[in-house]
Design brief:
The complex is a heterotrimer of chains A (589), B (307) and C (283).
Chain A (H helix, E strand, L loop, with lengths): L5 E12 L2 E13 L4 E5 L6 H7 L8 E9 L2 E2 L5 H7 L4 E4 L3 H4 L6 H13 L3 H14 L5 H4 L9 H13 L5 E5 L7 H18 L2 E6 L2 H7 L2 E6 L2 E7 H6 L4 H11 L13 E14 L2 E14 L3 E5 L6 H9 L6 E6 L2 E2 H6 L9 E4 L13 H12 L4 H14 L16 H13 L5 E5 L7 H18 L2 E6 L2 H7 L2 E6 L2 E7 H6 L4 H9 L5 H5 L13 H4 L22 H5 L15
Parallel strand pairs in A: 3-8, 3-9, 6-7, 7-8, 13-18, 13-19, 16-17, 17-18
Antiparallel strand pairs in A: 1-2, 1-4, 4-5, 9-10, 11-12, 11-14, 14-15, 19-20
Chain B lengths: L28 H10 L1 H23 L31 H37 L1 H16 L2 H12 L3 H28 L2 H9 L3 H38 L10 H8 L8 H28 L9
Helix pairs in contact in B: 1-10, 2-3, 2-10, 3-4, 3-6, 3-8, 4-6, 5-6, 6-8, 8-9, 8-10, 9-10
Chain C lengths: L12 H15 L5 H14 L11 H38 L4 H15 L2 H15 L11 H31 L2 H8 L4 H13 L1 H25 L4 H11 L2 H29 L1 H5 L5
Helix pairs in contact in C: 1-11, 3-4, 3-6, 3-9, 4-6, 5-6, 5-9, 6-8, 6-9, 7-8, 9-10, 9-11, 10-11
Chain lengths: 589, 307, 283
């Protein structure tokens, strides 16, 4: 029986802040064997990041810690700071969540890649640079010699994370701790990074502690998984076992919130278009070059219907939402709301039409004025339109709160006292105050915990059934859109590349990008995920012409790199051949 | 087909102990007051400032000598029971003159800061709200004005405009408002993009409602801090000028003129420069400390300053 | 005034605006032309021997030539002193945050910011030169004579730099890339120097431009108090004497120095922060 590489015994961590003491980790015990991938799953604030920081000894000094952390035989908690520092980067490595923040913007990536190596192994600059270049090639960065001298802002998010992975592995540690390594990345990039991690782990035979909130990621990569809740490990075991037959109610609930979301009822048969968007475009000119945020987009939402707009960051879906709301004006095209041109409505003196069109925004915290009480926030639309006053107003507000499942005393609270999910409910309540017909939701689930997302999804489904609302839901989370939307539109770089019923798109995606998006969705079902094709490091030229044959009847493949206008980032500009994200080719970006 | 979540999430206590960093909204009013009072620094600041303000108000009446009365038989006396802070070379009671000077220096400081606030609010607010070319033009002008060496301009202006209160005020405020305008503009621009402002627009809120209910209350923090820190720099400018012989003239007693008169006598009658210097420093210090306290009160991070 | 030609104005665009503003102030748009003529005559009466009316008149040049090196030395000494000790104190305060070292730095910097330079100068004179005759009282020439004025001049900038360094460093140390540097196992002296300070000092760098200006201007009074024959003294006297052409000449000179300093600092900033070079339009 092999000895475990890392063994944590009875780890307790508490923090004192402003007079109170918080118990962050309670009695954590687990072990990681050599060459194993272990997942640590939990929602925000459960303590998983603290555990990750505690192992290499990177906690801020105000925390008190007790227990044992045995690594390769030594108790890390007893080691001197110098000895501990000599292990970091060398035997234990860390990969953090946001690649944009993990790199020093003032130093070249070559310096940052090799500094650990040069310090620990006492290697000179030239040799270290050579090793660095080798690693850059291994993680799939092209032109590594040139890239070594570049600065972090010249790379895209996915590339930065690759560099950070290379930096973590360059000293060949035995344990790598990855703290939410793909959370900040787009779905397709996430897939590539996870593949890369698996490939490297396989080659180097190191142990990987993968911390995430996403059970799908766990199903994809991990052999064992641990579930954490409120500072305690509530369940532990092989991935198949935990995901297929979870024991602890929290694990069961977590799985439920991804596996079975409330399904939207089927759309009514009326085809009275509530919102009619015709060939809308929005261009920006930025210092000479033109950026097309939205390019010739058309769709319709009928009464009682839910339309989802999916796509990754930067595809223009938020701009579409703002255009539909009248918060921005299009460069060309028109939008008809309830038969009337939206922009003539905007110019009207009487703005009471706004009651029928409301919006929920992405960040719940930012959408509530922090200076006002909830009562004033909810009352605002009613005050502006002068519909209710005094006692009736108060009653109406209580009703609103009840509709979103919140008790009356919330009226007196301030936004900062609420959790993310509660804030989002208030935002929904506020939007419902005027009894709108159409509700535009811009990424309402982003930034919320999985369980909270499930609550909001259910709430929206319930409200749709009860109030016969129509929704325009903008989200990058295709899984949620599948349940919540009747029809789905997928956007990419400002263009709408696929449009159909959500069932159709899911089962039979036509466009290669849609296919890539859907295959990037990770479900917490281990057999499905582990059967994916392995990572291939070989770069192939973009075979976009070949694979586009026989595709998409509705849209021509105007997305090929040659026709792509206004690439968004400098990194993409320099890698024009790889803009086509085809899953089977694993072209690097 | 499930239409409702079977597991009741509301009964489980939410695992988060503190908010995720990105989620942090601006602090509420209650939280800010709490922090302000907790900050020991600002308490010192207030403890120092209050007595000074008190004496400024009642000081001259406490003493039996008017500020310009000459006692030629008692020139250059050290502090004594008769003349609490001593006398200067014309036999005038320094105690009275100190508090008389306090009135001048403080009123100049506060007035100048308020003028700066007024101009800054209008200028910065307009620039921030309007955006685009208008914003650029306004801020370019402000930048040019700002790039002139502050004290040099003040000196030149007082040379041109002559001495006295009004020219002094003009000279001090003419470049001072730029900082306030920049802060206001920055805040307005920042807040304009926030979702709650967009939401209010989406409800059809009028421009004035946006400004007074949404933008300004949330911008008060940095504005207040800047105001608190403008006062000492205005006071400093006034004393500096008076020290140079511009600004306030004798026999008016401002701390600056008193320091100017006291300097040549440093070796033998040090109290003549000590008292104005001391009170000047204490006043400036108290404003800075209060400003520091305000900064930690409005500080957006969860980390406290010098609590 | 009408003798001031349009040519000696330097090439820089902002200089021209600056000059324009000053000219406006100097000429006074509300003053009738006759009054300006009067000023011209006024100068003749008030000017001391050897001054010329015109700029660049030789005498004004001579004045600058003689006195500027002294002011420059004083200013530079104070500047370097403030920079080195300011960064050092700020760093210590940040590393030992909330401990006694931090509080001590806080008290010292509060004093530095609050006590006006000329009061501090007088205080230093009294305590260290009169009461305890440790240092020479005034005048200029030897190094020991330069110590007190340099300290008086450096106090406020030192305080500002220390505060900025402290807050900049505290902010920077929260960042993820510092955590990563530590996670690579780098020892404190390495990550502090290469990662933390490099980023934390960016705001200090942009402060250095205006600082240089303030140091040069603030030396006026220090020079007066310590009887140092520098440029500042000339400026103060010319102001008291209402010697307009000298004032103008000196102001012009100071502005040129200031703008050069700011320009150099800007260049330095671009070298320090690579993002500026490429994204220069997006600020």
């Amino acid at each position: 029986m092999t000895l475990p590489l890392l063994e944590v015994k009875n780890l307790n961590l508490s923090l004192s802040k402003e007079g109170h003491s918080y118990h962050i980790l309670r009695d954590i015990s687990f072990a990681i064997n050599p060459g194993e991938i272990v997942g640590l799953v939990g929602e925000s604030g459960c303590g998983k990041s603290m555990t990750a920081s505690a192992i290499p000894g990177l906690l801020p000094p105000s925390k008190t810690i007790s227990g044992r952390i045995d690594f390769e035989g030594e108790n890390l908690l007893q080691l001197s700071p110098r000895r501990l520092a000599s292990m970091r980067g060398n035997r234990i490595s860390l990969i953090l969540q946001d690649p944009s923040l993990s790199l020093n913007p003032l130093m070249t990536i070559g310096q940052q890649l090799t500094e650990g190596l040069r310090y620990h192994k006492k290697i000179d600059k030239k040799k270290a640079t050579k090793i660095g270049i080798e690693w850059l090639t291994r993680v799939g960065i092209s032109d590594p010699e040139v890239r070594m001298k570049q600065y972090p802002h010249e790379f895209s998010g996915g590339m930065k994370q690759r560099i950070l992975i290379a930096a973590a592995l360059i000293c060949k540690p035995s344990l790598v701790i990855a703290d939410e390594p793909t959370t900040a990345l787009d779905a397709t990039i996430q897939e590539q990074i996870l593949n890369l991690l698996q490939y490297l782990q396989d080659e180097e035979r190191m142990s990987l502690l993968l911390i995430t909130h996403d059970l799908g990621v766990v199903a994809r990569l991990c052999q064992r998984v641990m579930v954490m809740y409120a500072g305690q490990l509530v369940e532990m075991g092989p991935v198949d076992q935990v995901l297929k037959s979870p024991q602890h109610p929290y694990t069961q609930a977590l799985l439920q919130s991804r596996n079975s979301l409330a399904n939207i009822q089927s759309a009514p048969l009326t085809s009275v278009p509530l919102l009619d968007v015709r060939q809308i475009s929005r261009h920006y000119s930025l210092k000479g070059s033109r950026i097309c945020a939205v390019d010739n987009v058309s769709f319709r939402i009928n009464r009682g219907e839910v339309l989802g707009i999916g796509g990754e960051s930067g595809c223009g879906k938020t701009t579409v939402g703002k255009l539909c709301m009248g918060l921005e004006s299009p460069t060309s095209g028109s939008i008809y709301f309830n038969g009337t041109d939206l922009f003539s409505l905007l110019r009207q003196k009487n703005q009471s039409w706004r009651r029928n069109l409301q919006m929920i925004f992405q960040h719940p915290a930012g959408s509530l004025n922090p200076c006002l009480t909830i009562e004033k926030i909810l009352a605002e639309p009613l005050i502006i339109h002068g519909t209710a006053k005094g006692e009736r107003l108060h009653k109406h507000l209580i009703d609103l709160l009840a509709q979103v499942g919140l008790p009356e005393h919330f009226l007196k609270r301030m936004p900062h006292e609420l959790s993310g999910g509660q804030k989002q409910r208030i935002a929904i309540a506020r939007a419902l105050a005027m009894e709108p017909e159409l509700l535009i939701c811009d990424e309402p689930f982003a930034g919320l915990d999985v369980s909270v997302q499930a609550q909001i999804v259910n709430l929206l489904a319930k409200l749709h059934a009860r109030l016969n609302l129509s929704y325009l839901i903008i989200s990058h989370d295709l899984l949620i859109l599948r349940y919540l939307a009747h029809r789905l539109a997928i956007m990419y770089l400002g263009q709408m590349i696929e449009y159909g019923t959500s069932g159709d798109i899911y089962e039979n995606p036509l466009h290669p990008y849609t296919q890539a998006l859907i295959s990037a969705v990770l479900l917490p079902v281990p057999e499905l995920e582990k059967r994916r094709p392995p990572y291939s490091n070989k770069r192939r030229s973009s075979e976009s012409d070949q694979s586009c044959k026989g595709m998409s009847l509705l849209f021509t493949m105007s997305l090929c790199a040659k026709n792509m206008r206004g690439s968004q980032t400098q990194a993409e500009r320099s890698q024009t051949s790889s803009l086509c994200r085809l899953p089977s080719l694993r072209v690097t970006i | 087909m499930l239409t409702e979540q079977t597991y009741d999430w509301e009964t489980l206590p939410h695992p988060s102990l503190h908010h995720c960093k990105q989620d942090l909204p601006p602090l509420s009013k209650w939280q800010m007051w709490h922090r302000f009072w907790n900050c020991t620094l600002s308490k010192y600041g207030i403890f120092i400032l209050l007595p000074i303000l008190l004496f400024t108000a009642i000081g001259p009446s406490l003493s039996e000598y008017p500020y310009d009365a000459l006692h030629l038989t008692h020139i250059n006396q050290p502090p004594s029971s008769q003349f609490w802070f001593g006398t200067d070379d014309l036999g005038r009671d320094i105690f009275t003159r100190i508090w008389y000077g306090a009135r001048i220096s403080l009123s100049v400081g506060i007035l100048a800061a308020l003028i700066d606030l007024g101009i800054g609010l209008i200028w910065g607010g307009a620039a921030g709200l309007a955006g685009g070319r208008f914003d650029e033009i306004l801020m370019r002008f402000a930048d040019i004005l700002y790039s002139l060496p502050h004290l040099l301009v003040i000196i030149l202006l007082t040379v041109l405009l002559g001495s006295g209160m009004i020219p002094l005020l003009i000279a001090i405020t003419i470049t001072g408002w730029v900082t306030m305008a920049r802060i206001v503009r920055g805040q307005v621009k920042l807040l304009k993009q926030m979702d709650f402002v967009l939401a209010a627009k989406a409800f059809g809120a009028s421009q004035s409602r946006l400004l007074f209910v949404h933008l300004l209350p949330n911008a008060m923090g940095p504005i207040l801090i800047t105001l608190t820190l403008t006062i000492p720099s205005a006071i400093f400018a006034e004393t500096f000028l008076s020290f140079l012989g511009l600004g306030i003239q004798a026999p008016q007693a401002s701390w600056g003129t008193m320091a100017n008169e006291g300097l040549p006598a440093l070796e033998y009658f040090p109290w003549r420069i000590f008292f104005p210097g001391f009170f000047m420093s204490m006043t400036l210090l108290s404003f800075h400390l209060i400003g520091e306290g305000l900064k930690s009160a409005f500080d957006q991070s969860q980390d406290q300053g010098y609590a | 005034m009408k003798l001031i030609p349009g040519d000696p104005f330097s090439e820089e665009q902002s200089m021209r605006n600056d000059m324009l503003d000053m000219l406006k102030h100097q000429h006074g748009l509300d003053r009738p032309i006759l009054y300006q003529y009067f000023d011209y005559l006024d100068q003749l009466l008030h000017l001391k021997l050897g001054y010329s009316l015109k700029y660049p008149g030789r005498s004004v040049n001579q004045i600058i030539y003689d006195s500027f090196p002294i002011s420059a030395q004083l200013g530079l000494q104070a500047f370097i002193f403030a920079l080195i000790f300011g960064v050092a104190f700020g760093t210590i305060a940040a590393l030992k945050s909330h401990l006694w070292q931090d509080r001590l730095v806080l008290i010292l910097t509060s004093a530095g910011i609050s006590i006006p330079g000329f009061i501090l100068a007088a205080l230093l004179q009294y305590c260290l030169a009169i009461y305890l005759p440790l240092f020479p009282l005034a005048r200029w020439g030897t190094f020991s004579q330069s110590i007190l004025p340099s300290i008086a001049l450096a106090a406020a900038p030192l305080a500002f730099i220390a505060r900025m360094t402290r807050s900049g460093l505290l902010d920077t140390m929260q960042k993820d890339y510092i955590k990563m540097a530590k996670a690579k196992g780098l020892p404190p002296h390495k990550w502090l120097r290469k990662h933390a300070l490099r980023n934390a000092l960016l705001p200090v760098l942009s402060y250095l431009g205006p600082l240089l200006a303030n140091v040069l201007v603030g030396s006026f009074i220090i020079e007066k108090i310590f009887s140092i024959p520098g440029l500042g003294q000339w400026f103060v006297n010319s102001v008291s004497n209402r010697d307009y052409s000298l004032i103008m000449g000196l102001t012009l000179f100071y502005s040129v120095i200031l703008l050069s300093a700011v320009f150099i600092i800007d260049l330095l900033y671009a070298v320090w922060d690579p993002r500026i070079r490429i994204v220069h339009e997006d600020s």
